[in-house]
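May I ask for whichever protein you like with its backbone structure tokens?
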Amino acid sequence: MQNGTVLVDILNKAAGDNKQGPFNKYESKYFGGLGYSITAMNGTQQNSTTGYYWLLFDEQSGGALPCGVSSYVPVNQSTTIFRYTTYSSHNDTVTGYCKTFPPQEQVPPPAITVTLEMDWNITSVGKPIPASYTTQVAKDTVLVDIVNKAANENKNGPYNRWTSTYYGGLGHFITSMNGTEQDPSTDTYWMIYDKATGKLTPLGVDSYKPQDDSTTIFRLVTGASHEEATPTATTSPTERDSSSSPGKFVGVGMVALCLLAVNEALLLL
């Protein structure tokens, strides 16, 4: 891995390198201004009732990391442990360091203007549709980075605290937005549409690149609506999880990092 790579990118590489391994299909919640918080690994969910969460530790020093996966940078030959625990101290000394998050970056030319919208059945969900979000980003910015930008800019807005399951080789599969969860029992999922065409995007949030003056819609749909979905251009059907519908995937120098899935305290990144 390239020197200076943040932990979440190393975690995603581990998921992609071994789709049957313990780091694939981890679950997270994105907090604006902080980054991804790990809520489940290797099939084990955090539990607020018992006080067990996923917490990060530096094996060399034994200390809990002072920041989360979106900002922590492991150093060469270090080992980072994902531990399921009630321990909550974040004041220990560690071998790595924390990057500023979110990064302070200006949009390089040529910038494009993109819009995000949400859509659902108001009667079924029981809440109004939020206002659209329009911003400027660099050309070829992937959709997940635009959603995270919206969350970082408005921590009380509808794009903050979206949740997902990460699939190696595919990316984030959105499981909730604006507090509304998917419901597999009714075949209800979050799907992504291009407003101009009215069709599902061919790629998920980690791969899809909205064009200038485009509007992308995150829509909560049920049942037959999934029939319109098309497989991603970069993924064969055999790579998809059998429980998921097509189109729902919403997707370093030398650093030797051994990611150990052990036992949970919330990773606020």
